[in-house]
Write a structure and sequence with these properties.
Layout: E1 2-9, E2 14-20, H1 25-31, E3 49-54, E4 57-59, H2 69-73, E5 76-78, E6 82-84, E7 88-92, E8 104-117, E9 120-127, E10 138-143, E11 148-153, E12 162-168, H3 174-182, E13 188-195, E14 207-212, H4 217-229, E15 235-241, H5 250-259, E16 263-269, E17 297-302, H6 304-317, E18 323-329, E19 335-338
Parallel strand pairs: 1-7, 14-15, 14-17, 15-16, 17-18
Antiparallel strand pairs: 1-2, 3-5, 3-7, 4-6, 8-9, 8-13, 9-12, 10-11, 10-13, 18-19
Bound molecules: FE2/S2 (inorganic) cluster (FES).
The site of FE2/S2 (inorganic) cluster has 13 residues, from loops.
Length: 339
């Protein structure tokens, strides 16, 4: 049996490695040319300590000086003593460069550019090989002929040699200009990643997911994962855009809702002159019940003002959710800050 171990480095880079059920995570990383800091390899020094965000594992011998009982209870691990019992996600407290690795670059070819609405494109890319990533993460995509890149969350599920993205149509933007005027099937692109701390954690309580515009993309990838794994916990996805014409991927969302019985889709339009049952901002429609008295995970992907508005709204309601993960994207469509 082989498990996948996602190593999330301090600089936002993620590498996903294979690790046998009897293999030490440190050895598996080394075999795949990633040098997690280490000294003793015997559970004595604590140099290889990481935090396990997700997954089950066994730890062999270690001294209290290397890792305390409290740290072990908080799911810190010594990678030189750790064998996985499931797929895992580890936070590595150093940069990828320190571990002599970095984000991987994969070549791709445009399959199609779809004008999904006046404000967004769908980009589908055939990859030379699948890019392992955690649902919710992003890659940098180079903009051919410009020497520049932009960052986009996958809207597709991991494990495929086809990837898809939702891209905001930003007049004058380098990616938007290329997609709107030049890009065609067969064009070569390069994708570097995956990156980002915005990814789906284990679902152990009700979920409130908040998407602003093309911030829907990571939630599509997350929903594909939930559809495959299943959950009984309620997921309320609030999808906020300006106008009805800006709502995209509705058919896909409905198909996902058929597979995920606990999923509720809530659309919100900001424009006052639209005929829609929910208008205004997402905060106008977030009720205390949506946070389940604080026993809820909140995920948000949208522009910075949306993040701040939701944070203030939760504070005004007196709600402190069990976790709040967000990704802000700025006008260049680059996920700038994740938490
Ligand atoms: Fe010393 Fe792992 S390298 S405890």
């Amino acid at each position: 049996m082989t498990y996948q171990i996602a190593l999330n480095f301090e600089d936002g880079v993620t590498r996903i490695i294979d690790c046998g059920e009897d293999e030490l995570v440190m050895d598996a990383a080394f075999r795949q040319k990633i040098n997690i800091p280490m000294d003793c390899r015997d559970g004595v020094c604590g140099t290889c300590k990481c935090h396990c965000e997700k997954g089950d594992y066994e730890l062999d011998f270690y001294l209290d000086e290397a890792m305390t009982e409290e740290e072990a209870e908080e799911k810190y691990v010594l990678t030189c003593q750790m064998t996985p019992q499931s797929d895992c996600v580890l936070s590595v407290p150093v940069s990828s460069a320190v571990c002599k690795t970095g984000a991987e670059t994969v070549k791709g070819e445009v399959i199609a550019v779809d004008a999904l609405s006046a404000t967004s494109f769908g980009l589908r890319v055939k990859l030379a090989k699948p890019i392992p990533f955690l649902p919710g993460q992003y890659v940098n995509i180079d903009v051919p002929g410009t020497g520049r890149h932009r960052s986009y969350s996958f809207s597709s599920a991991p494990g495929s040699d086809e990837a898809s993205f939702l891209i905001r149509n930003l007049p004058g933007g380098v990616m938007s200009t290329w997609l709107g005027e030049t890009a065609k099937p067969g064009d070569a692109v390069e994708l570097t990643g995956p990156m980002g701390a915005f990814y789906l954690r284990p679902i152990e309580r009700p979920q409130a997911w908040l998407a602003g515009g093309t911030g829907l993309a990571p939630f599509l990838a997350m929903l594909e994962k939930v559809a495959a794994d299943g959950t009984d916990h309620p997921i309320r996805l609030f999808y906020a855009v300006t106008r009805a014409a800006d709502l995209v991927e509705l058919e896909r969302l409905r198909a996902l809702a058929e597979k995920i019985e606990s999923l509720t889709l809530v659309t919100i339009l900001a424009a006052e002159d639209e005929a829609h049952e929910r208008k205004g901002f997402v905060t106008d429609h977030l009720e205390p019940d949506d946070f389940n008295g604080g026993d809820a995970d909140v995920y948000l992907c949208g522009p910075p003002p949306m993040v701040e508005a939701v944070r203030s709204h939760m504070a005004a309601l007196g709600v402190a959710p069990a976790s709040f993960h967000f990704e802000k994207f700025n006008p260049t469509e680059t996920p700038a800050v994740a938490a």
